[in-house]
Please model this.
Amino acid sequence: MSTSQLPSQSPDKGSRISNLPNEILDNIIVSIINNVTPVQFEYLVNTANHLTMWDIFGYNASGAERFDPYQLQHQQEWVIVSSVCRRWQYTGRKAFFSLKTFVITTVLLKALVAGRHKLLTSPNLDILVTIRHVVAPMSGRGASDYLVLPRYPHAFSNLQRLDVLTYVGMDDILREYCVPRFWTYPRDKEPYRELMECLAGIGFQVEGLDIGFPRIRKSVEAEHVKRLLVDVLPNLRFVSTQKAKSKAQVTE
Model:
């Protein structure tokens, strides 16, 4: 993400912030980063490359009205942690990625893993490993997105929670997924028990990772389960079985 359009940054040498104890600096930054609404990662990156502090805080005529209201506070916080001195930037960006929840689609994940996301600079790519909580929206393309799920823990080595959302639009995620402890489908009951088994069968390392299947709207629950049973599980069963056969042949 570019910070070239931000106000000039003070050098570390002689900066009052650079002399603050780590604990105080951490507490200041944590107090700034307090929005529980998920960050739409790609939207943040796209807008960060052509916004200024005067845009994002509404000082221009068009002001903050140009930005998604559900993402505006994240953008303001990103501008803040990307300003001041190098020490503030490093600590602030690390906290930003580790404390927030990020919506990362499978398409975006592939680009990040390959290091070919054109809007991300190397320093920010390196710090992405600090992300702890990801929301992974699954599209309506059968099991294709589910086959990518094993890549999430590999991409984010500090990942602690992964919430898998099936057939839920981005608008619903950003407007309704904002409760810290939301209701999730029980993983020990069907069809989620089998889904967990199939994910393990395709190489998803679930040990030590908190996986949730949040329910956004009860009105779509029946359709959600139906699609899992018809579109997703049969394909995952097939892939899982094929992987097991291949592994058995190698060990023979």
